[in-house]
Fold this sequence. Notes:
- This protein is mainly β.
- About 5% of the residues lie in helices and about 50% in strands.
- It contains 1 helix and 12 strands, in the order ββββββββββββα.
- It has a 6-stranded antiparallel sheet with strand order 5-6-7-1-12-11.
- GO terms for molecular function: zinc ion binding.
Amino acid sequence: MVHFLLGIRAKLESLTNLQPQGGCNDPNFTYLFKLKCEGCGELTEKEIGVRLSLGNGKGAPHLVRKCKFCEREGSVTMMADRGRPLTQTGLYSPLMMFNCKGYEPVDFVFSGGWKVESVAGTSFDNVDLSKGEFSGYDERGEFPVMISKLHATFTVVTPGRPGYRNFVRW
Ligand SMILES: [Zn+2]
């Protein structure tokens, strides 16, 4: 069994604490990515969306899906409490852990529903990152703010192996 940890990186100009609008365990924040079938290697045509509110809270998968090509069934289960807001340019911050059976998650897509704070403490809500960047102006601090160079990656982590615990805490 492997888990996939989604980490994000960005250039933050006069901004900090980039995270889903309701925090890293936001039940309604949708994670969009493609799934690669481990049986036949096919990629889903479009991104699929999963969010914590799709779960029943008892550990059942948040998504169950049959591969269109080889008909193998796979699932995606989200694992909360691993995320941290992105505070600094250049560092990866863990956002969400996924337990995927039969699939590998690839190509995470940034969309809407983010929040971020300026270094002067002003909140920017429902930030849309689907264009790959965000720019605004902090009225209180009187300076421009910007998010750019967004990057996301899924890292394989194997439960029980040395380093796993440290790794998920990043
Ligand atoms: Zn398949």
